[in-house]
Amino acid sequence: MRSRGHDWLLLALLPLAKLAIHLATFPGYGYFRDEFYYLACSRHLDFGYVDHPPLSILLLWLVRSLLGESLLALRLLPALAGAATVLLVGLMARDLGGGRRAQALAMTAAIAAPYYLAIVHFYSMNAFDVLFWALAAWVLIRLCRGDGFRWWVLLGIVLGLGLQNKISVLWLGFGLAVGLVATDRRRWLLTPGPWVAAGLAALLFLPHVLWQIAWDWPTAEFIANATSNKMAGKGVAQFLWEQVRLMNPMTLPVWLAGLGLLLFGQRGKPFRMLGWIFLAVLALLALSGTSRAGYLAPAYTWLLAAGGVAIAGWLQSRWALGAALALLVVSGAVMAPLALPVLPVPAYIEYSQALGIQPRTEERKELAELPQFYADMHGWEQIADTVRQAYRTLEPPEREQAVVLAPNYGVAGALELLAPELPAVVSAHNSYWLWGPRGKSGEVMIVVGSSREELEEHFAEVELAGRTDCGYCMPYENDNPVWIGRRPFRPLTEVWPRMKHYD
Asked: Helix (H, G, I), strand (E, B), or coil: what is residue 238?
C-alpha cells in the first residue's frame, strides 16, 4: 500500500510541475495569431470549420462563457491538457511494467520536450491532439495487458473525440491498422472489439463529415492549397533531424530505447503493436515531403513511456538515475526559451544566436529577427491601432455603413477582439469566408493590405489612411497600407463568392 501511495504521489507531482510551468509563463508575448481565430470561431458555433473540426471550438466556447477571453482563461485549458499528457506518460510507463524510476524518467522527458512546452502555451487544437493520442495509446496498452471489452468502447470514444478535435487522428488510425496486421494482435480482428471501436469513432465523427459534404469539402481544398502554396518542402533527413530538435536531443536516447523495447525487447513483446504504430505514422509523414515536423510529436508519448521502462532497467544505482534526470532537467531548461516566450525579445535574440539557432518557419514566408512561432505573438495591438485611427477619420454617416476587410484570419480576429468599436470585420480567409460579408454592401470599406491599383478596379475613390508598424511581427504583416475605399462599382455581396481564400 505504501509503494502504491508513493506511485500516485509521483504521478501527481510531475504533472503538477508541468502545470505550474505553464501557469507561471502564460502571459508570454501576448496573444498568438491562431488564438484570435479560435475565439472568432467560438462566436460562430458549427459542426465544422475550414481548417479544423469543432471540438476545440466548443471547449473554447465553454471557457469564454465561464471565464471570459483573457489570456489566462484562454491558456488554462491547454496547460491542463499538457499536465494530463504528462500524467498519461507516467501511467503508460507504469502499465508497461515500470516502477517509480521508469515513471520519473518518462514524465521528466515529456516535460523537457520543447514541442510539448510550446504546443500547450497557447490555445489550439494541437494541445488536445497530443492528449488524445496519449490517451488512445494508454487504452491500447491496457488492451494489450488483457483488459476487457469496455476498453474497446473507450478507445472508440477517444478516437472519435480525437477526430472531432483534429483529423490527423486518421494517421493514428492508419498506424493502428498497420500495428494490428503486422503483429500477432491481428487475432483481435476476429473479435467484436476493434470493429466496435471503429464504429463508435466513425459515428462520433459523422456530424463533421456531413458538414464537410454540405460545404463541398472545404478542408480538402484547404489542405490541397496549403500543401502546394504554403508549406515548405523537406526531405526525409530534414524531417528526422527536426524530430530530434523538437523533442530535445537529450530525450533521443529515451525514445529510441522505448522504440527498441517495443519492437525487439522481450519485455515489450505484448505491446509490439505500439512500435509498429509509430513506424507506420513516421513513414507516412516523412515520405510525404511537406509534413510539419510537429505532426509526429503526439506519437512520442508512448515511446517516452517505454524508454523510461527500458532505461530504468539499465540504471541500477540512484546516482545514475539522478544523473539521467538531471541531464533531462538541465537540457529542458536550456531549450525552454526556444519553446516558451520567457525572455525579453532582445535577450531571446541574443540567446538563440549564442546557441547558433536561426529563426525558423515551416512555411514559405520571409522571417526577420524572430521565428514565426514568436513573431506571430507580436504587433496585433499596433495593427488594431492603425485600423482604429483610419476608422476615426470617417464621417459619422460613413461609420455606420463601413466594413473592415482583413487580409487573413489573424488580422481579422485581432481586430474583432482588440478593437471592438470597429464596425463589422470580414475576411475571405478560411472560415471567415464562410461567414460572409455580414450583410454589408461595402459602400465604405477599410482595407488592410492590397494595392492602390487593385482597389481602384473596385472603388471609385481610394484613400491611403495609414500603414501598419508592428515591430517584431511577421514581415508580411508589417508596413501594410490601410486604405479607405468608397463607392464600389459592385456590392460586396456580389463579389464575395470570387474572393474565397483557403490555405
From this structure: helix
Instruction: Read off the amino acid at residue 297.
Output: A
For residue 354, give the C-alpha cell: 549564442
Check if the beta carbon of residue 495 is closer than 8 Å to that of residue 483. Answer: no
202, 181, 219, 420 alpha-carbon torsion, rounded to 10°: 70
Which element (helix H / strand E) includes 481? strand 481-488
Residues in the chain: 503
Tracing cell 500500500 back to the chain, one arrives at 1
Distance CA 46, CA 48 (A): 5
* Percentage with pLDDT > 90 across the chain: 91
Contact 55, 77 (CB under 8 A): no
Q: Name the band, by pLDDT with cuts 50, 70 and 90, for residue 6.
A: low
Computed over every residue of the chain, the mean pLDDT equals 95
Mean pLDDT of 250-276: 97
> What is the DSSP annotation of 70-97?
SHHHHHHHHHHHHHHHHHHHHHHHHHTT
pLDDT value for 364: 82
37, 81, 202, 217, 409 from 34: Cα distances, Å: 5, 18, 28, 22, 8
C-alpha 247, offset from chain centre? 15
Measured from the Cβ of residue 465, the count of other Cβ atoms closer than 10 Å reads 18
Evaluate whether 342 touches 25 at the Cβ level (below 8 Å): yes
- pLDDT exceeds 50 at position 2: no
Digit-coded pLDDT (tens) for 199-210: 999 999 999 999
Set of cell numbers at residue 205: 465523427
Q: How far is residue 90's CA from residue 15's CA, in Å, rounded to a whole number? A: 9
pTM comes to 0.95
